[in-house]
Design goal:
The protein is of the alpha/beta class and about 325 residues long. The protein folds into 2 domains: about 140 residues, Rossmann fold (3-Layer(aba) Sandwich); about 180 residues, Dihydrodipicolinate Reductase, domain 2. The protein contains 9 helices and 14 strands. An 8-stranded mixed sheet has the order 8-9-10-7-11-12-13-14, with helices on one face. Strands 3-2-1-4-5-6 form a 6-stranded parallel sheet, with helices on both faces. β8 and β9 form a beta hairpin. α1 packs across α8, α4 packs parallel to α5 and α7 crosses α9. The protein is globular, with a radius of gyration of 20 Å.
Amino acid sequence: MAEKIKWGILGCAAIAEKAFIPAIKKSMRAELVAIASRDPSRARHWAEKFKIKKAYGYYEELLADPEVEAIYNPLPNHLHHHWTIQALQAGKHVLCEKPLALTATQVKNIFTEAEKRNRLVMEGFMYRFHPQMGKAVELIRSGVIGEPRLVRSAFTFIFDRDRSNYRWFAEMGGGALYDVGCYPINAARLVFQSEPEEIQATAHLKESSGVDLTTSLLCTFPGYRQSLLTCSFELEFQSSLEISGPLGRLFLTRAFSAKNFETEIQLTREQKMQLIKFEPADQFQLMIEHFGQAILGQAKPLIDFNDSYGNALVIERALKLIQQKKSTSQI
């Protein structure tokens, strides 16, 4: 029987309830043993509901539990840096929801701490573990579409959560760019295997809070390769990724949200389309199992420092440009 990594969760986030817990319950390499919440009664309720043997009313208590080997951190964005550092200092490996941190400097701090403590940290870009994305990368690297020259991607949805949700507050890392824009950025950087030399950004900002409701980026990569990326809290659902080269084009309709859906890659060459189909797969489960293998020394984390640091830099640059435009328009 495969060795199981014992996990704890910080907080009772919706993503933990809907995606992480169902996935870890199916995993043969992981066991969920503890959960913590600032509301002790909620932690106890979740422990009973999901058959988790330990419930804590403070995050520090969970981090002090010697049985817990790995932490899942799905806390609000502005808490990712602090509690990931705290978990690493407590000797835990950490899988942290995206974005790993709000700045590139914070990302660097996290990985420095992980190296110092000889622990692993990985940003939770679950889409990278789906067979659909793996096949897309394989096709690109095989040269079937030639050198990728253009990436067009959109991750949008109608965000209608309660107005107390952290995504509505800039100081908490709210806005569409941090929440879903990080995915198309990561995908473009993955396709081109480089960092953008130039970024242009435009956004629709919520007047009362300043968070971006819709943001579009035009990024120029070395060799004049381009990416057109859009994220939004106010547009009909899209989760698309299109990669074009001189010999063909790949199109994924559910690039970032493929969990439990039948998916396909549309490969077009010489104006003829070939469909490559995939059965439903749990990308969260695949991510958890991969991270467990990495902890056991059987794999290297698929998403490393360069992934997370580069993504944070792009987001920082885009937000700075957006704020500069806002300031100029107010003069």
